[in-house]
Amino acid sequence: MLYNKITEMCFNQCVDNVFNRDVAEWEGSCVDKCVNKFARFNQKMMSVYVEVQTNINAKRMQEAEAVAAANATASAATDQVAVTANTPS
What is the pLDDT of residue 30? Predict the structure, then answer.
């Protein structure tokens, strides 16, 4: 899908005359620059996405570990209360 969008946009931006069989030198140059620009942009965007997503995943793991620790503490406290309640006085 990305390839199709880039192709369409660069074609619309760079090609003036669709009735000529040959690609003009400036049209070829324009298409090359257009495609290279989007390739560099996509590479930069993906590197930022990976960095941000890594931070989000780390934060979610910390939150899940905190919840698990809280649940373990609550479970241990409940078990202790049950043992104390069943101990004869």
Answer: 95
Q: What are phi and psi of 15, to 5 degrees?
A: -100, 120
Find the DSSP H helices in the chain. 2-14, 25-86
pLDDT (tens digit per residue) in 44-56: 999 999 999 999 9
What is the spatial distance between Cα 14 and Cα 8, in angstroms, rounded to a whole number?
10
Whole-model pTM: value is 0.55
Closest by Cα among 4, 63, 59, 7 to 31: 7
Structure tokens at 80: 């202790």
Distance CA 48, CA 18 (A): 38
In whole angstroms, what is the distance from residue 77 CA to residue 68 CA? 14
**Spatial distance between the Cα atoms of 79 and 81, rounded to a whole number of angstroms:** 5
